[in-house]
Every structure is written in C-alpha cells, then in structure tokens.
Amino acid sequence: MSVPPKEFIRKIKPFSFLNEAQLDTIVGELDVEMYEKGKTIVKKGKHSDYVYLVFSGTVGLYDDDTLVDTVSRGEFFGILSAISDNPFSLSAIAMDDTICYLIKKRAFKKVFEENPRFSSFFSSFINRRFRSFSNLLREAEGAIHEEIYLIKVKEIINKEPVVCSPDDSVIESARIMIDNNVGSIVVVNEKREPIGIITDHDLRKIFVKGLGSARVEEMMVSPVISVEEDMPVFEAYLMLLNKGLNHLVVTKNGKVTGVITSKDILTLFEPTSSLLSLYRSIRKSTSVDELKNHLEGIRKAVAELSIRGVHFYELSRMITSIYDSTVVRIIKMIEGKYDLPNFVWIHMGSSGRKEQIIATDQDNCIIHSGDSRTIVEFARDVNSALEKVGIPKCQANYMAENPKWNLTLEEWKNNFKKWFSSLTGENIRYLSVFLDLRPIYGDQELYLELIDFIKKNVNKQTIRFLALDATAIEPPIGLFGLKGVEKGLDIKKFGIYPIANGVRVLALDSGIIDITNTKERIEKLRDMGVLSEERASDLLESYEFLQELRLRHQSMSYSAGVKGDNIIHVEDIDRIDSYILKESFKIISSFQKYIRGKFRIESL
Amino acid sequence: MNVRSAKFSVVDVETTGLNIFKDEIISVAIVPMHGTKILVGDSFHTYIKPEKFDLKSMRIHGISPNTLENAPTFDSIAKKLHEKIRDSIIVGHAVEIDYDFLKKSFKKSKISFNPKKIDIALLEKWLSDRLGDRCTDLSLDSLIKSYNLSSRFRHDALADAFLTAQIFQIQLLKLLKYGMTSVDRILSAIESTKMSRIDFIF
Prior knowledge:
The structure holds two protein chains of two kinds. Chain A is 50% helix and 15% strand. By secondary structure, chain A is of the alpha+beta class. Chain A folds into four domains: 123 residues, Jelly Rolls (Sandwich); 117 residues, CBS-domain (Roll), CATH 3.10.580; 173 residues, Beta Polymerase, domain 2 (2-Layer Sandwich), CATH 3.30.460.10; 135 residues, Four Helix Bundle (Hemerythrin (Met), subunit A), CATH 1.20.120. In chain A, β16, α16 and β17 form a beta-alpha-beta unit. Chain B has a single domain, classed as Ribonuclease H-like superfamily/Ribonuclease H (Nucleotidyltransferase, domain 5, 2-Layer Sandwich), CATH 3.30.420.10. In chain B, 42% of the residues lie in helices and 16% in strands. In chain B, strands 1, 2, 3, 4, 5 and 6 form a six-stranded mixed β-sheet that branches. Chain B is of the alpha/beta class. In chain B, β2 and β3 form a beta hairpin. The interface between A and B is medium-sized, with 21 and 29 residues.
C-alpha cells in the first residue's frame, strides 16, 4: 500500500525517472509541513536537513530584502544546497499559506548518487545545459526515439571503407568489390586520401567498352565528392541530391573512413521521409501551384517534427534550405522573362540569420549593377509568386519590390553611410534589419563588396547606439518570477530579439557580420575570445531554448489550425519550461549588463 | 498543551461492518503528526486477520481473503500498535467508529485505550460555523475536494489516513490563525459541536 505523496512525487519530473525502491527511499523519510504566510522556512546562510517540494502555496526566495524567485506547486528549492552541502544562499519565506513536502537530504542524496538520469537532470539544469535537459525530458516522455536530424554521417557508416590504389587494374578493383560485397570502391593515394571513386554503374560502362584491363586511375570518377564524418546526415543528403550523386565518400581529417549511399540515408529517414520527398519535389517543381502544395506539406511536416521534439537548430536549418530552394526555384522560373542587370537576391531578418520557422514572412532585397526599372518589375513578380506559394509579404515592406530596397551597390553603400552617420531611431531600425544579410541567388561579388564596405565604414558611435537599442528591452524578471506577466509573454520581443540583437552588435564590433546565424556568431565570438566560454554556452543554450519554445508554440497553433504568434502564456507551458524560461531571462539580463558595460552605454 | 508540540495519530480503521458487537477490524493505517508536521516516513499500515469472521463468506472491496488469511491477528500486534499511538491524540474522519473498534479490540488484549480524539468532520463543522465558509457535505470525499487534495489515490486505508492528515493540517492552520493554539480549546470546541450534530452526514 503506498501513500499519496509517492504518487504525487512520482508524477513530477525528474522523480519520474526513479524506480520503486528509489521512490520508497524518498517517501520513506518524507515529512509534510505547513507554513503560515510570512513564515521564514529557511534563512539565508543556514543549513537545512531537507530538499523542499512545494505542494501548495507559494514560497519566495529572497536575497536579504530582494525577491529573487518564486516557487510554487510542484517546484523545488534547496536542491543545490543539499547536493553541495552548502548553506542556503537565499532565504525561503512563505508568501502564502504553504504546504511543502520535505525530502530528507540524505535520502535525496542517496537517490541522486544512485540514479544517473536523476542526477544529470539536476546537474544539467544547474549548469544550464538546457538542451541536454530538455532532451532528458522529451526522452522521458517518449517523444523522441531517435534524433534523426542530429545523427552524424559517421554514425551510419556500416562498413570499413573498401579501397584500391590508382595503379590497380579495373578488373582488380572489381574483384575487391565482389569480395567485399559493395557497390563502389574508393581510390586512395598513399595517405589514404580519396582521389576518385568507381561504382557498379561505372564498371558496367567500362566493361561494355572492353576497358577492364585499364588502370583504375584512368577510369575512375574524379575528383570525388567527400564529406567530413561530423556532417549531419540531413545535410549530406541534400548534397547528394544537389549534386545528383548516389555515393558519398566520408572522411576524417581528409582520410577515407567509409562510403554512404542515398539508400543508407533514406532507410534512416524512413519515419520522416515525407519531408525529404517534399524537398525533392520542390526542387523539381515547375509551377507556382505545385510549389504551394509542397510548401504546405513541408509546414505540416515541420510542425509535426517540432512537436515530436526535433530541435530548433536542425529544423531551422531544414526550413532554411527548403525556403531557399523555393525562392531560387521561383527566381529561375521568372528571371528568363526579363532582361536583367547583374544582381544578387538577398534575405534579411530571420531568414538572413537562417532562423526562420513556420510563420515566417518575406524579408528580401536586391543589390544590382544597373538600370533599376526592369529589376523592380522582376522583383515584384518574384515577391508576388512567393506570396502565392504561401510565404506572406512583409508588412513593413522590407522587400525587393520596394524601390527603396532594390538598389545599386553604390546606392546601398550610400544608405549605410547615411545610417552610420545619422543615428536616428529609424536608421537604427534599418541597421538592425540590414546587418543580417545573406545572399540567396545571383552575383555574390556584389554582396561581398557591400559587406566589405560595411566592415570598413562602421564606427564606434554606431555600434554604441546599436548596443543601446539591443539592451533597451529588458526581460520581465525580478518582480514575481514570470507570473506577473498576465496577458502572456512575447518571447520574441523579450527573449529572442535581445539575444539576436546583442550578438549582432558584438559581431559588427568584431568584424564578422558576414556570419549571420546567431548560433554561429556566438560560436565565432567565443572562438575569437570576445565571449567567455561560459557566457557563450549560456547564450547558446537559452537562445535555442527560447526559439524552441516559440517553435513548439507555433507548431501547436499550426496543427490546431490557428495562426501562430509569439505570445507564450506562462500558465500553459510545462513547469520545467517555465523554470528554464526564468533562467534564460536571467542569462539575457546578465548579457545586457555586459553589453552596456562593454560599450559604455550609460554615458550615452 | 500547545498544538505545535502535540502528537497526533491520524488513523483509518477498516472493519467487516459497522456493528461494534459483531464486526471486526481488518486493517489499520496510522499516519503520525508532530505538531503541524506530517511524518509520512513513519506511517504504518497492517492488515488484520479477523478472529471469528468466516473469510470465505466475506467480500470486501479491494482486499482478498488470502491477504487477510495471512495477516496477523489483532491480539498478536496489539502491543506494537499501542506503542505507536500511545500518548498521542487520535485523529480521523468520523473517528468515533474507528476509536470504538480500537478500544474494543485493545480491551480484548487487556490493554486500556483512552486517548483523546479529534474528528475532522466535526472540526470542519466548527470551523465553517466560525469562519463562515458554508459547508454542507462533510464526507471525506467532499473534504478532499474542498481542500484541493487529489482523491485519485484513495480507496486504501493508508491513502485515506494521509489525506485525513492533510485536511487536519490545513484545519490546524486555520485554528492557529483564529488564535486557537491549545489542544484543549480545540477538543472542547469539538465537544460543543457534537451537541448539535443533527445535520452531520456520515
């Protein structure tokens, strides 16, 4: 016979990871205590024998007189001090009449040491490894069986590579293939670097021509397309598709480690292959209607994948490739109708950052080198076609069809010069849009020259104003946790923008704006020593978490047939998510402080 | 005695029926409390093999005759049981019946059993008279609901005893806020309620 607390506790993550015996250990020494409103449960600086689980009511955690956090039903406090044997770093005071389950410290620690999943849950939270944290959760919920889009190429190699030397005869190489029962052989030099490949298909042709005794070097397909073994499988697959290949050589530091085929990949993708076949269809589409149908299917698949727990970075990478191909497809359908100057089609905003998700709209512009009349007409055609396939027009009219954003290289340079020298609110807004530029189609040189110009002409004062702008909106913490936010919380405004904008400022200051993706910017800034390891990893974790929360939210809306927004209602989200949300806001807050300090904002 | 230093034993006794002369105890659950703190870890439950009752003819929801057949008799654990609840105030929902059955059984084992007792249903009645919360149904299920406790895990003696303890804990909070800090005042409040228990529903 078991007592109800066991059932209550069993349902709370991460106690759900515990086995019966471990639950018994926890419950076997459990007390339930009640605290009147205003009562101090544990004082800052004191030790406690317990880890506290709030059953009802609210507990405030205070640093002297400052309320730092609130804890309510199903949430814990005192875990850190239990694990570390340190005294409480904050005072816990009942803000309402409160009932707590008191878990004896030694029982908690015993289970903590026994159960690695249980302990990694807490340690990943404490160390702000939100990603592994949410993995643990979703795993526990059985949402993901395999993180298919995270799998690296090396994980699907199922054989030692079969290789031959360029000096072997073709017959010899065919014999090696037969002995090893493979459909291709990699030709390597003395350093085991791939220099060519021969497949079954090639062999047939060679033998038909009676060239079996020729040297491999003369007959092999070369150079060979190879990928490093850490590349995600999904990307490798796109590469196979784009290059029309069937075999891909896998290398580690340039040396052959295996061969994968499109069949290997498709078997792996079986459950989610709809996305891939849709992607293939988009590449083959010849009409706007066709594209529209496929894109709709893609959105559905993406919503499903996100609900099933595929991560933001993987999904946004997929959506970006898909949207990019759609745009390229459409431009190619249309450009033939016009007599166009040299141009490059550019994406800005979230698409520029490769961070778009389901509810994304068009943000594009053109840099060209000539007469603007036809190119604006062409752009209008493309923008309308994109709208037709289901990528809505940008409400703020940041689009190539707007003559304001369809300019020659010189005109663009003048724009930036003007924006850099006159730091009005409007110009700052333009900068925050046009500093995330990514070329999609056309003449890259135009883009590169503009980027170069920006890097050379940006000045400290501009960067300081952008820094001021990036820190203007502060996350809603510090008052009553997140619960003070009643009408829902705009996580784009309060979470995603502050990070993306802050990181952009640092990227601009460090001369790396040609990297547009926020994650890649953070990693680069970390590698350059601009961001500390710790801050970089905190930012990466919380940025992904926020994006994921938003993506899941939009996916749910999408699946329910409602237009998605960015407003998260705190009471709707998972308790664990609200924990992390709070932590993420703390990280953002500290990041903003750092930016303000670095760029001496207070003196502006 | 101050409530905060008092010892309580929240009990739930299951019997073969309600006839004190004929029926017997078949299970006892005890959840101890020290002041307002529920000591879940020290809670206790045992099935009890009835002495005379024909187990084969008995059908009780949720308990198999086999379980009872292999359970100890009351007499064999009477001393141990008494150890657990001596010097404490017995608390229960409609505790009168549990109390009477325990008293009768202890008596058979020649143990005198005369602790004080608190019925949380009567206490609820008193509280609602004083504090103005209207309260029509005093059954355990309704109390569990009105105190926002989940009743999903009910239907065994230990769960009922624990939920009873949780209700009592919140009642104690109300009493403390009302200024009732002594056990004696609470006991006499309940006595006064007993007088007018016409509308009490079992």
